[in-house]
Amino acid sequence: MSPSESLNAPASVAKSTPAALYPQHLEILQQRTAEALQRGGFDHLVVPSGTSHYQVFDDRDYPYAVNPQFKHWAPLTRNPGSWLVATPGQRPKIIYLQPFDYWHVVPEAPSGYWAEHFDIVVIRKPEEALQHLPANGTRCAIVGEPQSALDDFVPNNPPAVVNYLEYQRAYKTPYEIAMMREASRIGVRAHRAAERAFRAGASEFGIHLVYCQAALQDANDLPYNNIVALNEHGAVLHYTDRNRLPPRETRSFLIDAGASHHGYASDITRTYAFDRNGEFQALIYAVDNAQQKMCAQVRAGFDYKQLHLDAHLSLARILQEFRLINVSPEVAVETGVSSAFFPHGIGHGIGLQVHDVAGFAESDRGGTIPKPAGHPYLRLTRKLEAGMAVTIEPGIYFIDMLLEELKDKGLGPSVNWDRVSAFKPFGGIRIEDDVVCTDSEPLNLTREQFSAA
Ligand code: GLY
Ligand code: MN
Ligand code: MN
Fold first, then answer.
1. 136, 168, 200: which is the final residue of a domain?
2. The domain boundary residue, chosen from 168, 194, 224
3. Which of 96, 176, 201, 432 has the least C-beta neighbours within 10 A?
4. Which residues make up the environment of ion ligand 2, defined by Cβ < 5 Å?
């Protein structure tokens, strides 16, 4: 979907079935493919689904991860050795590997709302794909990883083709929004179960298992490694250790966990205080309030870089309000003090990948929009347009290493260290929603589910 064909009635997406939305999705992919091939000077787009990867000096494979360019076309996430062929003016083809194999579960025969839109050939051995790929490999843009090479069909990933397809992937079709809405529904269901486990005093490991059970997903399915952090662990941005035993005292809980649906991701973070009347809870409310205002800025034409920079100011205001800093919010941002408390980007694009591609793309022909100076971890610098889906995930953390650095830089007096000590046992706060930019009001996929009965 180009920005001009953008979403203007997202609510209607909820009421449509995937089967009803899918033909338009496929039509848009075919249009994009025709343009990408024309730019690259190729006749066919060929996309291998990918293969299993093995651990070094071992016969154990890693969990299979499908080529995102493949699952864009159909909800096939467990089909290694398959191929997609798209040729302008023809029905797309899927070469579907269904091996004779008694060691592993074999993919079921192709079926579902997507299948009738393809010419499908079932093969039993990976090399049989060669008989069904285009006759002239040199006329193909082959988009995939090197391990997928089959004879002359070696992924060439032409930049003109890849740049165009990845840039356009930022604009989600109504079908894709429906998939992400379902991924959000599953994630929120599991988040609710995780909060109950936290309130009952479970360990990090126990909460993680409760989450997986409620989502009916595990590491093979989840779009990223769950972050389940109690107390001080909330200050480790990507904490994935998961203690097996509960802490002696449970004070706080930060959970960053998503879910997948038909290849699409949700990415959700919530933070809870065990004592609902304490100051940490008040700080959570303040961040939550600020986060909702940031979500309201997900509007066509708004620069995401600016959203990130504005977030620093609004979080610095909270730091001042809670007497964590001794300087004005403006000075805290200018001197880098706010970055010690909020050391990551405000978010990223999301879709087929939790951190979606082309976040810095200047145009669909390439080029880079740089990150603002002093903000190395921002993952998206594009201007927001209707159809884009992004996360909004501000945080305030109490991270020793970064706070010590402030002292080293002579900025120690900017911080109220007694107040920092009081909050440190709670680790940190992050609140993260997935928000779709539309022609009108932002569509918050996460809040929509949390507010559903
Ligand atoms: N869950 C990873 C992130 O929030 O970006
Ligand atoms: Mn995120
Ligand atoms: Mn996250």
1. 168
2. 168
3. 201
4. 267, 391
Same domain, 330 and 438: yes
Do the Cβ atoms of 445 and 392 come closer than 8 Å? no
C-alpha span between 268 and 271 (Å, rounded): 10
User: Domain range for residue 53?
Assistant: 4-168
Expressed in angstroms and rounded, the spacing between residue 267 Cα and the centre of ligand 2 is 6
Q: Which ligand 1 atom is nearest residue 348's CA?
A: 5
Q: What is the pLDDT of residues 292-318, one digit of tens each?
A: 999 999 999 999 999 999 999 999 999
Q: How far is the CA of 251 from the centre of ligand 2 (A)?
A: 24
Residues 50 and 190 in one domain: no
Task: Take residue 387 and report the two structure tokens written for it.
Answer: 């159809």
Continuous segment of H or E residues that includes residue 32: helix 18-40
**Do 390 and 298 lie in a common domain?**
yes
Distance CA 81, CA 99 (A): 9
Do 190 and 161 fall within a single domain? no
Q: pLDDT, tens digit, for every residue of 186-245?
A: 999 999 999 999 999 999 999 999 999 999 999 999 999 999 999 999 999 999 999 999
State whether 405 and 421 are in the same domain: yes
Q: What residues line ligand 1, using a CB cutoff of 6 Å? A: 224, 256, 267, 354, 393, 432
Which residues are registered as beta bridge partners of 120?
A: 94
CATH number of the domain within which 23 lies: 3.40.350.10
- Domains in the chain, number: 2
- Averaged pLDDT, 183-187: 98
CA of 267 to the centre of ligand 1 (A): 6
Host H or E run for residue 280: helix 279-295
**Structural contact between residues 261 and 222, judged by C-beta atoms closer than 8 angstroms:** no
Bridge partners of 405, per DSSP, are none
Provide the token pair at 364.
Answer: 């669909």
